[in-house]
Amino acid sequence: MQFIPMQRKDNRLLAQLRPLSLQFGFQHHPLGSVLMGFGHTRVLCSVSVEHSVPRWMKEQNQPGGWITAEYQMLPGATAQRTEREVMRGKLSGRSAEIQRLIGRSLRAVVDLNQLPGLTLHVDCDVIDADGGTRCAAITGASLALECAVRKLLQQGVLTESPLKDRVAAVSVGLLSGQVLLDLCYEEDSAADVDMNVVMTAGGRFVELQGSGEEASFSEAELGYLLNTARCGIQEIFAFAEEALRDAE
Fold first, then answer.
1. Which H or E run includes 41?
2. What CA–CA distance (Å, rounded) separates 232 from 20?
3. 6 falls within a domain
4. 133: in domain
């Protein structure tokens, strides 16, 4: 397989990210909040603290604290308005799966023992959806969590940072035999293979979600997908690092 230097409908190269955007402190009340943008996809990620832990931790005498996440699409996030899931009386399978993914991704880079008796609630609300919302949510949530931890350290609630690394995510896919990075909705819906890759800044994988849509893919193609995702995530970390420095 070879990468062909062709452009996509939004004038990107195959292995090029959509324009990234970050706005810190988007909300006043949460400990940390970030408006994360991957092109036209924008997700508001915020972190709030609760000075208690889930009941199951108390019952099992589990030390430390916990991180949990919630994810939802706002009604106007897509071209056609979608009903709030609370109005349906239950969370959709998709939202439940994504918020579990966000929680797992964050807990993978946090020492929960350094959160004594605390629960950090991470809320990810999709304002505009154009593909890759879970990847934008993970990336933004990690940065919002970092901001929240800084504030907890300043307040004296924490004496040591529980953060072991940063985490970010990006989508890759196979479309017409080509490997694409950071798929928009149109590309995602047409892709033969779609994959979401979650990695740490240290280069370790946290989670891989990949499947063929009425198609299959080879080991070599998998290697190209992962290498493309790794390069994209490195760019995301570099962008985030610069944005954090500018925000200080």
1. strand 41-50
2. 11
3. no
4. yes
Cα–Cα distance measured from residue 185 to residue 35, given in angstroms and rounded to the nearest whole number:
19
Cα 68 from chain centroid?
A: 14
Report how many domains make up the chain.
1
Local structure of residue 115 (DSSP, 8 states): S
What is the token pair recorded at 247? 């925000």
109 lies in some domain: yes
d(CA 107, CA 120): 11
pTM, rounded to two decimals: 0.94
Q: Where are the alpha helices (DSSP H) in the chain?
A: 55-59, 85-88, 93-107, 133-155, 185-190, 219-247
The per-residue pLDDT for 4 is 44
Q: Which two tokens stand for residue 144?
A: 């919002």
Q: Is residue 125 part of a domain?
A: yes
Model confidence pLDDT, tens digit, residues 108-123: 999 999 999 999 999 9
Reduced to 3 states, what is the DSSP secondary structure of residue 67? strand
Boundaries of domain holding 199: 20-247
Give CA–CA dist 248/234, Å, rounded.
Answer: 22
User: To 10 degrees, what angle do helices 133-155 and 93-107 make?
Assistant: 40
